[in-house]
Amino acid sequence: MTGLKTRKAAVVLAGGLLLAILPLVATISGQDYLISLFSRILIYALAAVSLDLLIGYGGMISLGHAAFVGIGAYVVGILHWHGYNAEPLFGFIPGSDNALIVWPLAVMIAAAVALVVGALCLRTTGMHFIMITLAFAQMFYYFFVGLEKYGGDDGLSLISKNVLPGLDLSEDLQFYYLCLAFLVLYMLCIYRLVRSRFGLVIRGASINNRRIQALGVNSYGYRLVCFVIAGAGAGLAGALLANQSEFVSPGLMHWTLSGELMVMVLLGGLGTIFGPVLGAAIFLLLEEVLAMYTEHWMVFMGPLLVLAVIFAKNGLFGLLSGIRDRNE
Asked: Distance between CA atoms of 253 and 71, rounded to whole angstroms?
């Protein structure tokens, strides 16, 4: 067991070191575009880690997680639009580009929506839960498609990134390390969370919810808090993604993005926290490379993912770290 922990720690440290020095390597090699690419990977990794909390630890298979990513992005986009046009939202809320205001607001609104959605969805289980989360995501998708004021189906462009005192977010290097810091902080929070009493209840409920309830534990409340925390993480990812691309669209809420995030989680390793980061990196790098050769890159991506799932049942992170069971 000690050797397994050492191997796992070595894999995590190697990955962290690689992400820390990547901008330096990219600059020296003249491949500065890698900084922007890996900023995107870090953002998707944040969203994937939040989904792993739901699926890997809570046993809540959600096909609507992208809705919270889109909500976080649209909070940034809408407030930017109102600030640029000097038109208060609802007639009294001023627009803003201040990240200290906009980003916490994006997280809180995504968490509030997750609270409402989760309160309804968690009254069901199994296939019903999956379909209701999907229905909510599609509902939000078509709602924002219909908002012609904010671009409708064409989306909404940002004139510039948000303003964060002390940092220049238009500088790729600074934005990269900011994304990395948010990812590390969120992963640390999830790591502590799943190893607390709260995490034991969540994992127990995912295995046998009736037994947890028979012990007198209100598993519904615990699972709802888990759903909200995951929604908040996705909302933060959405806010960062809006700044990284300087564009938001209803496509961020489509079920296909939820599916991609789920693939990242499964590819990296379900219920491992670190696995989704590896899964996001592999998925997006494969997409980037394959798209250079063919527009039908998913034809080649599919078999690669199938092979990874068959021969690495605990994901690529489990394969690298020697994990045979998710509880190790």
From this structure: 8
Structural domains in the chain, sorted by start: 2-321 (1.10.3470)
Surface-to-core class of residue 86, CB atoms within 10 Å of its CB (0-12 exposed, 13-18 middle, 19+ buried): exposed
C-beta of residue 138 within 8 angstroms of C-beta of residue 69? no
Spatial neighbors of 68 by CB under 8 A, at least 6 apart, are 50, 110, 113, 114, 230, 231, 232, 234, 235, 238
Q: Which residues pair with 157 in a beta bridge?
A: 247
The CA distance from 64 to 133, in Å, is: 5
20 neighbors 180 (Cβ within 8 angstroms) = yes
**Three-point CA angle 199, 202, 204, nearest 5°:** 105
* Three-state DSSP state, 108: helix
pLDDT in tens, 145-199: 998 889 889 889 999 899 999 899 989 999 999 999 999 999 999 999 999 999 9
- State the Cα torsion 169-173-178-180 to the nearest 10°: 150
Among the listed residues 97, 268, 273, 144, the one whose alpha carbon sits nearest the alpha carbon of residue 199: 273
Q: Going by C-beta distance under 8 Å and a sequence separation of 6 or more, which residues neighbour residue 274?
A: 11, 12, 15, 187, 268, 317
Rg value, the chain, Cα = 20
- The beta strands (E) that lie in the chain are given as 156-157, 247-248
The separation between CA 222 and the C-alpha centre of its own chain, rounded to angstroms, equals 21
pTM score, whole prediction: 0.93
Kindly state the tokens that stand for 149.
């004021």
Closest CA to 118 of 129, 103, 107: 129
Q: Which residues does 75 contact at the CB level (< 8 Å), separation at least 6?
A: 102, 105, 106, 109, 110, 235, 238, 239
Tell me if 70 sits within 8 A of 289, measured CB to CB. Answer: no
Tokens at 133, concatenated: 């989360």
